[in-house]
Each structure stands twice: as structure tokens, then as C-alpha cells.
Specification:
Distance between the termini: 57 Å
CATH topology of the largest domain: TIM Barrel
Keywords: 4Fe-4S, Cytoplasm, Disulfide bond, Iron, Iron-sulfur, Metal-binding, Methyltransferase, rRNA processing, S-adenosyl-L-methionine, Transferase, tRNA processing
CATH superfamily of the largest domain: Aldolase class I
Main location: cytoplasm
Number of strands: 13
Radius of gyration: 22 Å
Number of helices: 11
Subcellular location: Cytoplasm
Helix content: 25-40%
Strand content: 15-25%
Enzyme class: transferase
GO molecular function: methyltransferase activity
CATH class of the largest domain: Alpha Beta
Strand order of the largest sheet: 3-4-5-6-9-10-11-12-13
Order of helices and strands: EHHHEEEEEEEHEHEHEHHEHEHH
Bound molecules: S-adenosyl-L-homocysteine, iron/sulfur cluster
Structural class: alpha/beta
Number of domains: 2
Largest sheet: 9 strands, mixed
Shape: elongated
């Protein structure tokens, strides 16, 4: 592996505490950190562990935001907590609902930045696509997020807060005492929104730990999928420290083409990536690695590409399924979507070789909620608003 500086620029992480004078947000803290803070602010040390458990359940299991609702805590203690702490998640700025039921939310985080979150209902599940960064430092040439300047990493509160926001909107918080629901509206999480999750590893890990915590959001690790463009050194850590399923933005079968489509390939090439996947400790037939492959007309969609893709996966003996993604066009995009016939021919070669090759259904197209289109509409709106203001000023 070549060891120079990683391909990241201008990544800022906000401190987890709000500035002086503000209250401390309890959302997104690890149990240990919450315990330390409770003790620091007057909770007797002997009680602290139990209090963390109680507060944790109120926040993540029952969706409460007000200490006054935490009825198994003494009234005076609830008031004491409310003086120092708060329970705060990102604020919903707008919500759009597609004709196919897909919901796209624009949420505002600290500093006035905005990220998008997409909820995709299906027959047997409901998937929430969440963001890990504002923008992305990487510059994949087919991805609209990649054309935006990264502003910053999201905090654990902002990451898990997206899930809590969606549960609010879906009105899915259970009522205390009621039996656990078997099927949930929000049953799966995919880290496929804006940003490269493995360049914000610690915050993504802390947030997903809460999502998986049986006393927290309580989703199984098998219902969480992290998608990465291929940050090789962090792939093994993903298995060890998060344990979720893995998806890889593969997208090309030669280094020459992948260098252009997914430039992180210049740092960790196809063989280095495949080796990391072959070593992924969680990979098995029941927990296959998803290879995401965007279908770009005349760029990566030939029969030879399909055969080479299979050869790569076989050479490294990786338990895999291949998810073909019809390219979602965005204004000014330098590529076109492959034809349906081409996509089906490509899928068929993969299927004949013995691998699942689903073609990803494009959801929420009418509200620009599809993969790789996020944030575009608001960016455009903002730019034009600015333009309008500039013009108005000139007059
Ligand atoms: N940064 C991570 C996760 C976010 S992107 C990653 O790259 O994996 C989620 C998926 O959408 C990736 O597979 C990405 O390559 C794909 N994608 C990006 N832009 C797209 C577009 N315009 N059309 C289709 N898929 C796109
Ligand atoms: Fe970033 Fe993923 Fe888009 Fe590449 S595809 S620019 S890694 S969000």
C-alpha cells in the first residue's frame, strides 16, 4: 500500500460540546461519555451507570426530547438535568414526498449547514439513506455530491439524529409498555447519502453503535449497510468496530477507468481493494459484500467489463452480489445512463456466472432523491437566490 497523505481536504469536525453558555447535547454520546458528563454535573457516581441506562432508553427507545417526560427519574433530578443538558437532533427544513412514496428531507445541522436524508418504503422493509458529511472531499466524476466543496464531517448526534428525525416523521416511536413491533417502517439504514463514511470513521461508528444498541434504536447490524468508495485501511476496522454490512462503489473493472470514475483508486487500486474485501472478516455467504456498479453509457458497460468484474471477484473468492445502478443524471453531468438493454445484458452475464445482479430501482426521481443527486436542488436554489440578490443590488 502506498502511504502518503489520504485524499481529504478541509475536513472540519465540530467539537462535541456546544460553545460556552449553550447546553450539552446528550444525543450521540457514547454511554461512557454520558456517564462522565452526568457525574461532572452532579449525578452521584454510584448512580451514574443506572441513570445513563434510563436516560438512554428515554432518548433512543421512546423518542423523548424533554427531561420532564422521564417519569422513572425523580422530579428534582429531571429539573437538574434540564438545566445543563438538552436532547437535540437536526431540524427538518423541508420534506418532499415522491409519487412512489419516497420521502426526501432537508435537515439543518449546527452552523446552518444542510444535508439530505431519504426514506425509501418497500413491501418488506423501509430503508433510510443517511449522510455522513456535508459534501464530500472525494471527486468521483459521475457523482453530484463530489462536485460540492466539503464543508464538514457530521457529528455522531447529527448522524444518529437523522434516524431519530425520520422516526418522528414516520410516527414510529413505540409507546412505553407496548410489545415490540415485528416489522418496522424504518427497518434498515444505508450510509449512502452525502459523504464518504470511512473518512468520518469515529463519528459514524459511534452513531451506528447507538443505532444497533438493544436499548437504543435497536436495529440489527445486518440491517445497516455502509457504502464506501474504497478507503482500504478503514475496511477492516469497519468489520471490527461496527460489524455492519459493506457495500463498495466499484464502478469500473480496469485501473485506468476506475482512476477516472473513482479517483481514490489512484491511492488504493483495484487489487488492493479486492484484497481488503477478501480479508473482510464478516463476509460470508449470508453476509455478502455488495459491489455497486453505476451503468455509464460507453464508459464501463461492455460485455468485457461484465466478464472482468466476475474474474476479479472470483480471483479473490469474495462472497458478493452485484448491484447495478442505472446512472442518475444531474445538470451538467459528463455521462449518460446505459440503455435498458445494455443494463440487462450486463446483468445477465453476471447472473449466468452465479452471482445475484439486481438492478437498483430508481426511487424518488421526481424529487431528485436518487443516488448521487443529493443536495443538488438546494444548492441550485441557493445559487439562484444569490444571483437574484446580486442582480437586485446592481439595480
Ligand atoms: N461515498 C460513499 C457513499 C455515498 S454514494 C460511496 O461512494 O460509496 C452512494 C452510492 O451512490 C455510491 O455507490 C455512489 O457511487 C453512487 N452514486 C453516486 N452518484 C451517482 C449517480 N449520479 N448515479 C447513480 N449512482 C451514483
Ligand atoms: Fe463522495 Fe461517494 Fe460521491 Fe465519490 S460517490 S464523490 S465518495 S459521495
Amino acid at each position: 500500500m502506498t502511504a502518503s497523505a489520504p485524499i481529504t481536504q478541509d475536513v472540519m469536525t465540530l467539537p462535541r460540546k456546544e460553545p460556552e453558555g449553550g447546553k450539552i447535547n446528550l444525543v450521540g454520546l457514547t454511554r461512557e461519555r454520558m456517564r462522565e458528563l452526568l457525574i461532572e454535573h452532579g449525578t452521584p457516581e454510584k448512580q451514574a451507570k443506572m441513570r445513563v441506562g434510563q436516560i438512554w432508553q428515554w432518548i433512543y427507545q421512546w423518542g423523548k426530547r424533554d427531561f420532564a417526560d422521564m417519569t422513572n427519574l425523580a422530579k428534582a433530578y429531571r429539573a437538574q438535568l434540564a438545566e445543563t443538558f438538552e436532547i437535540r437532533i437536526p431540524e427538518v427544513v423541508s420534506k418532499q414526498v415522491s409519487t412512489d412514496g419516497t420521502r426526501k428531507y432537508l435537515v439543518r445541522i449546527n452552523g446552518g449547514h444542510e444535508v439530505e436524508v431519504v426514506y425509501i418504503p418497500e413491501d418488506d422493509r423501509g430503508t433510510l439513506c443517511i449522510s455522513s458529511q456535508v459534501g464530500c472531499t472525494l471527486t468521483c466524476s459521475f457523482c453530484h455530491t463530489g462536485t460540492q466543496k466539503l464543508v464538514r464531517n457530521l457529528t455522531p448526534a447529527e448522524i444518529v439524529g437523522q434516524v431519530m428525525m425520520a422516526r418522528d416523521d414516520l410516527e414510529e416511536w413505540p409507546v412505553p409498555g407496548a410489545p415490540k413491533e415485528e416489522t418496522r417502517l424504518l427497518s434498515n439504514i444505508v450510509l449512502m447519502g452525502m459523504g464518504e463514511p470511512l473518512y468520518n470513521f469515529d463519528n459514524v461508528r459511534d452513531a451506528m453503535k447507538i443505532a444497533m444498541d438493544p436499548e437504543g434504536i435497536s436495529l440489527s447490524r445486518r440491517r445497516i449497510t455502509l457504502s464506501t468508495s474504497g478507503v482500504v485501511p478503514e475496511i477492516a476496522r469497519t468489520a471490527e468496530e461496527i460489524g455492519c454490512l459493506l457495500a463498495i462503489s466499484f464502478h469500473a473493472t480496469t485501473n485506468e477507468t476506475r482512476d477516472v470514475l473513482v479517483p481514490i483508486n489512484k491511492r488504493w487500486n483495484i487489487d488492493e481493494l479486492l484484497q481488503a474485501l477478501a480479508d473482510y472478516p464478516k463476509a460470508s455467504n449470508s453476509e455478502r459484500i455488495t459491489f455497486e456498479y453505476v451503468m455509464l453509457d460507453g464508459v464501463n458497460d461492455t460485455d468485457e467489463d461484465a466478464h472482468r468484474l466476475i474474474d476479479h471477484i472470483k480471483r479473490y473468492n469474495i462472497p458478493a452480489k452485484i448491484n447495478l445502478i442505472p446512472f442518475n443524471e444531474w445538470p451538467g453531468a459528463p455521462y449518460k445512463r446505459s440503455s435498458n438493454n445494455r443494463i440487462h445484458a450486463f446483468a445477465n452475464i453476471i447472473y449466468q456466472a452465479g452471482y445475484a445482479s439486481p438492478i437498483r430501482k430508481t426511487r424518488g426521481e421526481d424529487i431528485m432523491a436518487a443516488c448521487g443527486q443529493l443536495k443538488s436542488a438546494t444548492e441550485r436554489a441557493r445559487k439562484s437566490r444569490k444571483q437574484i440578490e446580486a442582480e437586485a443590488g446592481m439595480k
